[in-house]
Amino acid sequence: MSQRRKIRVGIFAGGASPERPISLASGHQIAESLPQDRYEVVLFDPLALMANNRRLGAEQRAQARAIADRSGRLEALSERDRRELPAKLRAEIEAATSALRPATAAIVPATEDAPIDVAFIGLHGPYGEDGTLQGMLELIGIPYVGSGVLASALAMDKVMAKTVLAAAGLDVPRGAVVTRTGYGRDPVAAARAAQEIGYPVVVKPVGQGSSFGVTMVARPDQLGAALAEALRYDQRALVEERLAGTELTVGVIGRDDDLQALPVIEVVTKHDFFDYQAKYDPAITEEICPARVSDDVARRAQELALAAHRVIGCRAISRTDMILAGDRMPVLEVNTIPGLTANSLVPKAARVAGIAFGELLERLIGWALADAADAEGHGSR
Predict the structure, then answer these.
(1) How confident is the model over 234-244, as pLDDT tens digits?
(2) Is the pTM of this model over 0.85?
(3) Fewest CB within 10 A of the end CB: N or C in the chain?
(4) Which runs of E-coded beta strand occur in 137-181?
(5) Is the distance from CB of 48 to CB of 67 less than 8 angstroms?
(6) Dihedral angle at the C-alpha atoms of 60, 62, 66, 68, nearest 10 degrees?
């Protein structure tokens, strides 16, 4: 009897966003957690595809060329990552870096490269979570885990996500958009918008994750510096009301209409907010699951997460962040590629629901292959 062929999984990790190190850690843990008797796993870096992308700096384009021709040395962690990330996470990032292959080998396999059966996108931020990579995979016909082009683009754009969620009747924070050109021409307009929202406010880039460029602003004299920081990462910044309350997050997994809201997680950090370091250092942030809220509040949070997942059009997995502020529970953000290390929020909640990390990964791969099989011969999905 012939042995069943292993499913060849291409894990896309790294990329060009500021969240590159966290993506590498996600990619490494996904690879380590898939059963070797059923899966053949290869880590691919899509940065190799971006050597001519003028939106990247010269140094990053040079790194892309080095990855593409496999001549690059192992990249060093930034000073910030060496300082703020736990040792275990740093070790996983370094392990992933040493195993990376250029994504060109997945897109146009060379003689020695077998095609992949499915792509597992472990990227976070621009050029991975925003629909761009999903669009390329759709074009060349590689099935992939997670949300499609539209949902990925919508969720990554905080302004569009809020617009769509609000149109569907979900509560979202009040806010205003400040563009780089508009702020340069009329900074008073931005100050006026923040005053109308009412201090304190949160200032953040429209299309970034991991709290890059986010600043809490208590007074008008802090607004200028906060906008300058946010506009370093994006051409648009979002100024939002800052709500005091209990931070909650809810993962949703499932295929089509068969969706499961995972147990609610309460996020309690020692920092002023859930910033980059707080997200990845367990000594700074406590992630309590199930959350210390009433059953009614938990059900309400799960219903909101399911609604947000459906409204944005997410597929297979999402995580919705919200805050319990008095009678309100506004949706702060919808993540289409939530962190996927074993200690990330969605895998933690899945464990509480009785779903081990490896089983979660296998479900996601199975759903992607099932979607591809259903779509075969029926046009684009």
Answers:
(1) 999 999 999 99
(2) yes
(3) N
(4) 175-179
(5) yes
(6) 80
Which of 3.30.1490.20, 3.40.50.80, 3.40.47.10, 3.60.15.10 is the CATH number of 175-241? 3.30.1490.20
DSSP-assigned letters across all residues of 250-307: EEEEEETTEEEEPPPEEEEESSSSS-HHHHH-TTTEEEESS-SS-HHHHHHHHHHHHH
DSSP string, 9-48: EEEE---SSTTHHHHHHHHHHHHHHS-TTTEEEEEEEGGG
CATH homologous superfamily, domain 155-171+244-364:
ATP-grasp fold, B domain (3.30.470.20)
DSSP secondary structure letter of residue 325: B
Peptide bond into 282 cis (omega under 30): no
Any idea where the domains of the chain sit in the sequence? Answer: 7-144, 155-171+244-364, 175-241
Structure tokens at 150: 């539209």
257 neighbors 320 (Cβ within 8 angstroms) = no
Q: In this structure, which amino acid lies at residue 59? A: E
pLDDT digits (tens, 9 = 90+) for 226-274: 999 999 989 999 999 999 999 999 999 999 999 999 999 999 976 565 5
Q: How many CB atoms lie within 10 A of CB 323?
A: 19
Residue located via tokens 């996600």 = 26
Q: What CATH number does the domain located at 7-144 have?
A: 3.40.50.20
